[in-house]
């Protein structure tokens, strides 16, 4: 039986002209000392990952710590200036802890400037609106984003957690194409597979960045019958090819023709290296659909 195509180790970031790795490394839990952080960054680079995803809210613990992940990364980049040129650096903004969202011109302009200052860089390769603010007209948001690009603060633009209509509305007011969309997607979270987001991404050449690609840890440590069924379907492929279940979960996403880039969230250097095995796992259509069926809990029509 013919295998699905193997995922490339490098792929274009939308229509931006930027090339990114097929896996990204996420900094949601990025903390500790600069030396510890440097080891993680080097582990990602050594594994072939050049795509680094952070956000201004990363580090917030419910009461304080807003901006801490960016600040830590900025300290590391300042002490190791050669690193920046090896990275495609993405950040996000638009969330004011603990809950409200703000995409107004004044707030987002200040948020982008604050991220640049914390990171100690002149430009972000990708900047994404972290959550949709339904009180900001997409025309106002588009103008804010245009100004950031024109000022040289941002090279490419994207959105995170947007619905299809919200993506289409924003794009209708933008003169340049959005480069990315960042939904939650995993073998346990199929919404983007079934609601048309991946189809739209392929239609408009949007790079899909998958957050929580391991289902919030439930892939590695399943609890429900559904989670165990998905784990078993992944294990069938992983064990036959000498890989781990988590690597198989990443590769299952990467096998989709939308070119999904899983965001690896582990803060363990060994597990970052382990994730790179996802490039070498091959899938038949039957094996791929077996995971989908296990997740849906019913046979395909």
From TrEMBL:
One of its GO terms (molecular function) is oxidoreductase activity. InterPro entries: AKR (IPR020471), AKR_Detox_Biosynth (IPR050523), Aldo/ket_reductase_CS (IPR018170), NAD(P)_OxRdtase_dom_sf (IPR036812), NADP_OxRdtase_dom (IPR023210). It comes from the Bacteria. GO terms for cellular component: cytosol. Residues 23-288 form the NADP-dependent oxidoreductase domain. PANTHER family: NADH-SPECIFIC METHYLGLYOXAL REDUCTASE-RELATED, OXIDOREDUCTASE YDHF. This is Aldo/keto reductase. It comes from Allopontixanthobacter sediminis.
């Amino acid at each position: 039986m013919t295998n699905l195509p193997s995922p490339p180790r490098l792929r274009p970031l939308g229509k931006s002209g930027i090339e990114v790795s097929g896996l990204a490394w996420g900094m949601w839990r990025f903390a500790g000392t600069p030396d510890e952080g440097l080891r993680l960054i080097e582990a990602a680079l050594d594994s072939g990952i050049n795509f680094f995803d952070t956000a201004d809210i990363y580090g917030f613990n419910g009461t304080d710590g807003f901006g801490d992940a960016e600040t830590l990364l900025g300290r590391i980049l300042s002490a190791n200036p050669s690193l920046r040129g090896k990275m495609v650096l993405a950040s996000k903004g638009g969330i004011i802890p603990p809950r409200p969202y703000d995409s107004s011109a004044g707030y987002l302009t200040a948020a982008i400037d604050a991220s640049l200052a914390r990171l100690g860089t002149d430009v972000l390769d990708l900047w994404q609106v972290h959550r949709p603010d339904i009180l900001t007209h997409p025309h106002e948001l588009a103008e804010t984003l245009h100004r950031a690009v024109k000022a040289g603060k941002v090279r490419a633009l994207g959105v995170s957690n947007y619905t299809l209509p919200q993506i289409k509305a924003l794009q209708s007011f933008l003169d340049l194409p959005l480069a990315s969309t960042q939904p939650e997607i995993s073998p346990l979270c199929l919404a983007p597979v079934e609601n048309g987001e991946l189809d739209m991404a392929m239609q408009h050449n949007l790079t899909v960045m998958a957050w929580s690609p391991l289902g919030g840890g439930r892939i590695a440590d399943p609890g429900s019958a559904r989670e165990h069924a998905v784990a078993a379907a992944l294990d069938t492929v992983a064990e036959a090819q000498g890989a781990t279940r988590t690597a198989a979960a990443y590769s299952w996403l990467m096998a989709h023709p939308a070119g999904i880039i899983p965001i690896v969230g582990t803060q363990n250097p060994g597990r970052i290296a382990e994730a790179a095995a996802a490039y070498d796992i091959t899938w038949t259509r039957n094996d791929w659909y077996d995971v989908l069926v296990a997740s849906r809990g019913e046979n395909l029509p």
